[in-house]
Amino acid sequence: MIEKDAKRAIALGYFDGVHCGHQALMRLAVQRAQENGAVSSVFTFDVHPDTVITGQPVPLITSEARRRDEIRELGGVDEVIFGHFNDEMRNMDWRRFVDDVLVGQFHACWIITGENNRFGYRGQGTPERLREECVRLGIGCDIVESVKIDNIVVSSTYIRQQIAAGNLERAAQFLGHPYTIAGAVQHGRRVGRTLGFRTVNLALPKEMQAPPFGVYVSRVIAGGQSHIAVTNIGVHPTFGEGDAACVEPHILDFDGDLYGAFVQVQLLHFLRPERRFDDSEQLKAAISDDVAQTRAWFETARK
Ligand SMILES: Cc1cc2nc3c(=O)[nH]c(=O)nc-3n(C[C@H](O)[C@H](O)[C@H](O)COP(=O)(O)O)c2cc1C
Ligand SMILES: Nc1ncnc2c1ncn2[C@@H]1O[C@H](COP(=O)(O)OP(=O)(O)OP(=O)(O)O)[C@@H](O)[C@H]1O
Description:
It is a single chain. By secondary structure, this protein is α/β, with parallel strands linked by helices. Helix content is 34%, strand content 26%. It has 10 helices and 13 strands. It has helices spanning 20-36, 49-54, 67-75, 87-90, 94-105, 127-137, 156-164, 168-175, 192-195, 280-302; strands spanning 8-12, 39-45, 79-83, 108-114, 140-144, 148-149, 152-153, 179-184, 202-203, 214-222, 225-234, 246-251, 262-273. Helix 7 (156-164) packs antiparallel against helix 8. Flavin mononucleotide (FMN) is lined by residues 188-192, 197, 199, 201, 215, 230, 232, 236-239, 248, 250, 274-276, 283, 287, 290. This is Riboflavin biosynthesis protein.
């Protein structure tokens, strides 16, 4: 239990996907907290600010249900604070945000931000202004240089573009971990078993940035175990149109029961687009080929 008036080293930003740059920033927050006998925290928002500002939902790399856990697991911080991004927050002067919210309400003794971060009304809170304000308040401040890969600044926006294009290897390189869809296993229509390939069924969270509908080499993490799998994402057009998009991994060489379990599906490599087959025999042949390609991919990855 973290005490309300504990002092905190607070990292600022939205942290969608918890990519390599976010992780570097949070490592520093953890270090500053240790040095100062403080709690390491992230201050983020319940909705993406651009969703409110532009009126267009920003598709997310991390589903809403997983955000807190993912930031804590991958960032190593003690606490994730979710500010409510409403009109009041949107119009709040940057200095008031620092003085009243971060310091007044959450007792910040150190604030950590990336060099490209902007906050407060119209983004008028720049890292340089933050540094000056922290000096005035007598608290610590770090401005972290952007992490780059291949001379490209790692950002959630760039990673979303890679996911949307099906470049999951590139997305994983920039994330520092695979793109993952998590959720509770639901009952499907039990067609999979008639095909000879049982599948685990998950809803695709509607707020997520999905990759193109298709078939992916995958891993399924369930009950602390990692399984090799091949996953179809889409609306399975062979069986009629109109269904909501779902995520259906077929776990190779597995005969267990996962109904109701909470699983994570890591999508590693795009194999082919989803398509409509004329009959289930053709679909079966295609899935057999997907399975063979998946085994071959893991064989090559192991070498
Ligand atoms: C590896 C794999 C690839 C698949 N590819 C397609 C496809 O291209 N087109 C399609 O209509 N269904 C495809 N399916 C079938 C459906 O996604 C789903 O497995 C089937 O409709 C069974 O659904 P159920 O679990 O609700 O019974 C594929 C399934 C798997 C496991
Ligand atoms: N590549 C990076 N290296 C270091 N820090 C970063 C990097 N990218 C973002 N940050 C910092 O991490 C915090 C959270 O970043 P945030 O999620 O707001 O931005 P982002 O990843 O650049 O996303 P977007 O593409 O939406 O701008 C911010 O303080 C930001 O400046």
